[in-house]
Amino acid sequence: MKKLSILITIAIMIMGSCKKDDEPAEITPEMAKDSLYYIMNIYYYWYNLMPAVDRNAYSNPYDLLNAMRYKELDKWSFVADYEKFLAQMEGDFVGHGIMVALSQDNTVRIAQIYKNAPLYANGVRRGWILKTVNGYNMAQIFLDGDNEAYDAAFGPKTEGVTNNFVFEKPDGSPYSVASTKTKFTINTVILYDTIWLDAAGTKKAGHLVFDYFIIPSSQELQTAFSFFKANSVTDLIIDLRYNPGGYLNVTQQLASYIGGNSLSGKVFATLSYNNKLQSLNNTYRFLSSSYSLTIPRLVVITSRATASASEAIINGLSPHMEVVTVGDTTEGKCVGMDGFVVGEKYLFSPITFKLVNSLGQGDYFDGLIPDQLAVDDITHDYDDRREACLSEAILYLQTGSFSGKGKGEFHKTPVWSERPEWMNNAFTVK
Fold it and tell me: Which of 35, 240, 288, 296 has its CB surrounded by the most CB atoms within 10 Å?
């Protein structure tokens, strides 16, 4: 991977010119487009399936990348502002810190909220009904699919924007609050706790709700699994329903904690590059750790928002242990990307590799189908045993089977998040 970084650095230096005292010239859109065009033709996983384009017909690298994507499969390649990308991967967040969704009863509810979010400090939790924002009827906006009205209700995604919320609390009482969008660091481990599986107190499941594989996640996961070890959990439920992916080294860490030290050195995932770059193929192996568990099986809660590195956890562990999934079919992102930094202004992240497990399995572009369908029950908080997905997970660990529900008509949950769209990705670390 060092060779990859060096090649790109050299390519950018050749395309640019130098200022006085050897300071690098500012990267212009033209230079950025040239760099992107070069990268896509060498490193893009589907380089031989790209449409032919005239890069001079596009005014910036954002539009050029969109034109060059192999759209039949690639929904994920992106260009980002380099500094903003780094900040977000370090956990920096601007907004109210909420994810909202349309429930089965046609009410809009809080689906997730970060602990450092402004609204969390005001007592708002998952499951609360969101009636209005600045007078806009949220249920009607979701039912109409009116994105413009939604944007008008919440305003710009910048610090200092104040919105007036009207909620209905779980006890039915109204709650009004003014909240100002602020910058804060998110918690990627939303919740960790334990659940007794039998009356005799001999079987205890660890329960982890995990949001995103970014830099702060490493310490948060260590804390959670230290807790699980101290509590001698016999099984594990991991909730990845809103987890869009992230860094593969954090993915490897989580997989190693789950798989246990008996898997140390065995293959977790292999990165397979295009046929011109087979020398870059790389294998991630399970690591030994004092925080690793010894469990016979894993239950994973999934949804359409479960993507990339989250799917790699399921696919990578499946050859080595019993992995059972509950919820909805995952997104189907079995590919990942390297990041190419251009002048510390742009980050180009095209799809560069496919992820496969130790059995060579990895073509799940249609998503990973759950063993048990269950709705994302946003009427209940994550630790409420009545929550539909958690209830099925617990039942399976108790009995070895599911309830049999979820076989009929299945309604997907429309969700809106303040996170950037490009976050459903798996990245390597240079």
Answer: 240
Note the pLDDT tens digit of each residue in 246-273: 999 999 999 999 999 999 999 999 999 9
Contact (CB, 8 A) for 229 and 258: no
Q: Tell me if 48 is assigned to some domain.
A: no
173 in the same domain as 223: no
Q: How far apart are the first and last CA of the chain?
A: 7
Range of the domain at 153: 93-184
Looking at the 3D structure of the chain, how many domains does it have?
2
d(CA 89, CA 216): 8
Distance CA 429, CA 253 (A): 13
Residue 100 lies in a domain: yes
**Judging by beta carbons within 10 Å of its beta carbon (0-12, 13-18, 19+), is residue 366 exposed, middle or buried?**
exposed
Is the residue at 152 inside a domain? yes
pTM of the model: 0.92
Residues 197 and 310 occupy one common structural domain: yes
Helix (H) or strand (E) holding 142: helix 138-144
What is the rounded distance in angstroms from the CA atom of residue 158 to the CA atom of residue 429? 29
* Cα separation, 108 vs 167, whole angstroms: 10
- If phi > 0 it is left, if psi is from -120 to 50 it is alpha, else beta; for residue 9 that is alpha
Inside any domain, residue 66:
no
- DSSP letter assigned to residue 52: P
Residues 243 and 141 both lie in one domain: no
Q: Are residues 147 and 207 in the same domain?
A: no
378 Cβ contact partners less than 8 Å away, ≥ 6 residues apart: 101, 103, 109, 110, 111, 126, 127, 413
Query: Tokens for 383?
Result: 């630790």
pLDDT tens for each residue of 158-196? 999 999 999 999 999 999 999 999 999 999 999 999 999
